[in-house]
Predict the 3D structure of the following.
Amino acid sequence: MSWPPSHRHAHVVGAGLAGLSAALRYSRHARQVSLYEAAAQAGGRCRSYFDAKLDRVIDNGNHMLLAANTAALDYVAEVGASETLTRPARAAFPFVDLASGESWTVAPNAGPLPWWILLPGRRIPGTAFGDYFGAWKLARAGEGDTVADCIGEGGALWERFWVPLTVAALNTHPREASARLLWMVVRESFAKGAGACRPFIARGGLSETFVDPALARLRDHGAAVSFGRRLRALEFDGDRVSALDFGEDRVVLPPDEGVVLALPPSVTGDLLPDLQVPRDARPIVNAHIRLPEGARPRRDLPPELPFLGLVGGTADWLFLRGDVVSLTVSAAAELAERPAEEIADLMWHETAKALGLAPAAAGGAPPAIRIIKEKRATLAQTPEMLRLRPDPRTRWTNLVLAGDWTDTGYPATIDSAVRSGTTAADILVGL
């Protein structure tokens, strides 16, 4: 199969971050772009919306970037939204154990040598200096090894570092998660020191940072953006896509036009039945809680670090934006099957404990709470599923794939989605 050197017009199907990234990259080359989205809004799993129950704008999920996520941060800079991110002066990750009440902060030092683990006061409570050497076992992991295979289960470091890190980065429990993929995360962040670990969070909302400015930039470049356009089928002529079937209309593609499919793996697999895709997914449950009027958290979260890692309970992370607390539970297969009301009670209880809310606020009736279940939030980042991640190129000369689930070499995160979109656009342009 030989690929044409370039395509003058790209049809990008899917306006999540992978599709937005592909469209932006393509338009940067002064090429024509048409962007199609089945939903009424862009952003996919990374967007904000007004919730009438809470009377607040909330995100459909919680996302944190690290300085190591250079592709995502470059994307934010390109659309002119860097100032919408928190700007922490240091890398610090505060934690609290909901079971014991202990609290600590993981704060790596500058440079690649982790001298912070030499100091008892800097180490995670209950851990010893030698415990941390398990990280290097990940570097020698085989293709089929899980995190638990390399690190071994049990102990304070397992419960207070490896489990939170793995589920946050891979949305898969370390008993199943790929050791090689987690090593890539460690290698690009903690192994490089504090400079690569600084956390960034959207101050106002995900759409304000990742979606709205990207759409504005695309429209400035003359891109055609349309919503409510669900791709029903692809039509082929020999080794190329010849038309896009949206049900109510067809878009016929001349020979010099290309297609980026930036859709979830299951949808892509249904459109391309001969393509093997990773269909096993893991859920994420998010809870958004509007604090009762007058509630005063006793635990202050600084504006530049408005989050708290949680262990010893159900939730993994707590984020505070104004009077809205948002909690995230990753790898939440069991929790996602429980009723929303039951989850809400549990999340409010953990919020009160984590923030040390005054007894009156904590003991009263639960406040307004919105539970959001993303049952197929990311692919299961197990060794088996990673082997099924496809290359962006397909056997059709004008069709490429994008999405955090494609073979980017990175975890299925915002950064991976952006990388995939950039790669897809470069392939069509002929770079």
Remarks:
- The first strand starts at residue 9 and ends at 13.
- The chain has three domains: 9-46+205-280+381-429, 106-197, 282-379.
- Residues 106-197 form one domain.
- The radius of gyration is 22 Å.
